[in-house]
Design goal:
Blueprint: E1 5-8, H1 11-37, H2 41-70, E2 74-78, E3 82-85, E4 90-93, E5 97-104, E6 109-119, E7 122-128, H3 136-153
Antiparallel strand pairs: 1-2, 2-3, 3-4, 5-6, 6-7
Helix pairs in contact: 1-2
């Protein structure tokens, strides 16, 4: 049986997930101040609302992505039973897996898991690799090699 592979959360992705909203808040802060001082109530309320949404997203990223990344928690695990995606709370047994593919997207690659039959996740599971530490192609290569080893044992 191959050794389990544990891939950690990406600190860089978490920091980027915090930095981008900060940039937008910084950009809108000047508009917020200008609207507030000129008593343009609708404008400053809309901008303040948008900034509050960005702050709530930042809080989500800090709690769900940055803290686990700093603690060194596992985001994706490949073991003898299957694939565990702790980011999205998905567990797939190897006996259900038909094939693995890598698909590149706009901001991150996706590990596509084709299933042999319909499950609670459907017939295809998409695991986004944005929050997983490492290069997407290397993660896929490790996952595919592990899948082939497990498939060869069964």
């Amino acid at each position: 049986m191959p050794q389990p592979i544990q891939l950690r959360y990406s600190v860089n992705s978490a920091l980027l997930g915090i930095a981008l909203p900060l940039v937008f808040i910084a950009i809108t802060f000047n508009n917020l101040c200008y609207s507030y001082l000129n008593q343009n109530n609708i404008n400053w309320m809309l901008i303040a609302g948008a900034d509050l949404l960005l702050l709530s997203y930042m809080a989500f990223v800090v709690i769900k992505r940055l803290i686990p990344a700093l603690q060194g928690q596992v985001a994706l695990e490949l073991n003898e039973k299957g694939i565990n995606d702790y980011v999205h709370n998905i567990a797939i047994e190897w006996s259900y897996v038909k094939d693995l593919e890598l698909e590149y997207g706009r901001n991150a690659a996706k590990l596509i898991v084709d299933l042999k039959h319909e499950t609670e996740y459907g017939t295809q599971v998409v695991i986004r690799l944005r929050w997983v530490k490492g290069k997407d192609s290397e993660i896929f290569d490790e996952a595919y090699t592990y899948f082939e080893e497990v498939k060869g044992l069964n």
